[in-house]
């Protein structure tokens, strides 16, 4: 076998990953047979198998897992000639990210906690999936316009920045973002949009391949609906007890109201017709918009309100803002991630900051300190001891509600800036020729990257030379195929 | 933006929902941070986060959730030119119903329990999904023949009647129906069929668009199989302990035998060929037919028997009864919900009544009083106290087995009558012209309601003017497109 | 209704199943209302409903259930004209097997345990699904080349052999195989390949119908991804506590690395293009290859290594070994189960034997005796009592690590031989004419077994008599249709 560039790089990467894991990774105690408690029965001081950490998270983890691989993967198959790449590269990138995130996240925590290895448990698997979501959102912005190698490089850089940004948000700003609307959605969306802006090629607008067909739109709905169904798990997976229960309810409600409003605004056009792009995407905006405050005491009506606003903004975004960004700002956003993740993410951050500014012990009980650890009283204060008599919390910074709101806002703003800057820099790196940037005629086209079945080209041949076929918009592919194509 | 009728109505509805929720809805204690027990550690009398009510139901809830949105949604995509509407309107209706059901169900229980608000927890989400199932079954009967506005009106009325009928069945008749075969399946099926009868348009029979194509049949199988897989959760979600375990086993077995018999009867034709309509639908009839008695002690063989009978009846229904109903009774049932939900539901009700008539403490232990609360002894009776010494139950009506069987039958009969009458009345309301009844040429056609990709119409243009294409049955659409169409 | 052969046989089989269940099957105590503990509250010595066995397994069971019916079913829809059969026969066979496995497995255990009935609980449902996996793997080898009747006969025989082989492996050799890589994957693959070898028809190689189209490849990805997602559940479902947690982690990691390497090797061709066949199948090989040792202390890096090797071997298998086997050995393996299940299964067995040879108490703690019960000390030995003071285990055979490794290898070798011999014999039985072997022109074609929608044949008629359509490779079907076909 002759060895080519991409395979070589992928194999080297995987070998390096194995080496990193061999040096630094180990099972967490709850997954480690060697851990002494696992060698004893529960009534002899051992670990109770039925209470293994796996059980409290596995269900939620699997929901998120489905969202990443089925949800994002199929959502992007709406492009009629890019389905293999959508679902295939989605899988490749995610498989890369879940390993790379464990390493970067692990190394960062080893550094800050002065430990010599990082431990893997079900929570590592879950947070790796969250990180994959950020990269796949960015993938949505550049969909159809990048080579696999560019995507791997993007994922490589993005995860490093993602881990650092999240660390700053969670540990410096002590912001609360249970559903990752800031650290995952805003980050992924604007990172991707910035990269797409730098990669902009004016020929993108002319491509007749960027569009759906009837069945590709149905394949995309598989992704949409699984995302919609499991979003409550995404937003609640890492919350405990009543917080988790509330996050499920709020997300479910926000998604329900978002559907109604998205359908409403979608059909509010001259022809009074619904648009599948809106149904596929805007119906999910409620899940993003409620993400930061999903475990807050926003009230069921608050969740419905947030979902409604998000649905409206998202559809308006698809109708007006996406074309405007492409035309005026040369930011061509293939999947419209600005409308599904970007603006609803900002909405989530704003709602989060506002609600945090009004959060009180009166309304939250001691749960306040679970959700906003920085609001807990200082170390050794009388107030802390009083609370700790009833409820296990750590010492905090004694922040006021408004201070917490300010930090929430700060975390959002920093995330936005970091994402834009890092995305743009990554875009410049991706443009470098060794990464095989996509030629114009290969935009939105599986043909260059995949062995394709005969009907992929038949669609074109079918109509050659007959009059009534000239109207078929797939014909243009044919011309491209006949053109000299040295590297295809 | 010019504002049109449907968007306006949807937005007003959503605003009203938010107002209703703001006035009446609150988190249940297990989802409410303010609840004092949530502010204490479990060992100080607080609520144990790991035992939050969410955990016992979330898994089952998500299975049912998948059934509603993926299962029903994709099952109906079998129509070759109505896939967008099938999966899209399914989503719209379900999102409407889950909010509207919480309100109506909440108000009813506020009235009967003299409380000032209704509480939302994971069980509310689950029962809202059950209610959505009823409406989506009705949707199956009228599929392709109604406007979105008609569907919203149908859902609005149907839920009110659904909540009342279920209340009567559960609280007056004290019938047991763990899988909702009576209150969900019979109700939804005959409500929809009655409405379809009133909406009957003789041109429906001529429509060349009512049919599948090769890939639309595969999309439908996604729906079928997820329904088939998660049906044990549907039938067992609300049962406790061994009852739940038994309901899972019985449903799994009934579905397995149903598949064998449905395939058998399906291929028993002159050509000895299987029919995808049967595989898509009749294979599920076992889940419906065992629904009422899923938690009864019917024995594993009993479950297999019920499933077998249901599979046979359902296929026979598709082969003979659906055409007969359409021809003779003008009841055109697009998805054949009579065969999948109606007759198997009646079967479930009958089996339920029969098995209930033979249920004894000897066979059920004290579980008898969990399944049939009315069979528990009267308040203050010695017998009640004896039982309560071992097992927590409430006082009942001291019903005999046969009495319980009679009430089971009564609940079924009342459900059937209520559904038919309410469905017919709703059909008349849906016919009113402000609700935009569907014109003949728009039957079973996404083109009137959706922006469609180019291949939706290409399929027609493809063959214009060539001889060998005259046999293509999509051609008829072309003529319609050329006809004057003032409102398209 | 005229009664035909297949329907008659299916109905008789189902009736016999019901009779078998009526005589021998009963609910397990945890699903039986009659069981006295279920009639008492937990604090009075009764069973705690919240700790019902259902809850510890239901989640995992449903994941496996999805793998069997969605995963295998859709994975095989890649054939462009065999989608109905793939997903339909998959459902039929699995529904047959889950009943038949309960009976055979039940009878075997009744015989060995001298009991008069077999008990059904959630574990029975789960192991029945595992057994279905074996048969469906065999189905993959003969896909498109067998009649439904042949498949039922194959399933009937295969399950009997499967149950016996597994019994020998687990109870005589006391081999550990938590993910069933030996007893399910090796067994199913080589049983199917042996049967396919006997059924070999040289015309298979000429069939123009054996191939995918663009959308059938996307349908197949639904199967692939659900298999990929839920494989950690398949490999861990029957392990307890930390073993289960570790099995989830190891499988997740092996699958992730497998994706990277499979993509790498796939695109390492002259054209540098990915192949959907590899993405659909080879990405899963890591799950198989780590199956036997998923709960061993192989280390996270060990899991990554196993997955990488499996991904490489599997793609190489699709590229070189499958064509070679068909050409040289007349073993035509439609889905390439040798590459996805066969060779990775052998890899799993070898890795299992090697790792078992190095397993020590030092590395595993007392968990060693959970994973390898035969390594526990002999009955009444001091060493056993010492362990039992801390940890509940049964007496074993005091095997050494190397002995255990030897038995692991033996179990694999016996499984391979049993599968090949039994598969070949079954192939000869399947060839008998009363089982309706498939005629050449019906290979890989739904048309003979299913009512097909108009576009199934339109594809052919479309191009009749026009010049530019001669290149369309579906044309050949047309000739066959025109040929005399007495039994179609």
Automatic annotation (TrEMBL), chains A, B, C:
Residues 47-434 form the Ammonium transporter AmtB-like domain. One of its GO terms (molecular function) is ammonium channel activity. It holds the Pfam family Ammonium_transp. It is a multi-pass membrane protein. InterPro entries: Ammonium/urea_transptr, NH4_transpt_AmtB-like_dom, RhesusRHD. One of its GO terms (biological process) is ammonium homeostasis. GO terms for cellular component: plasma membrane. Keywords: Membrane, Transmembrane, Transmembrane helix. It is found in: Membrane. The chain crosses the membrane at residues 7-25, 60-79, 91-112, 124-144, 151-173, 179-200, 212-231, 247-265, 277-298, 304-321, 342-361, 409-430. It comes from the Eukaryota. The keyword Transcription regulation does not apply. Belongs to the ammonium transporter (TC 2.A.49) family. Rh subfamily. This is DgyrCDS2739.
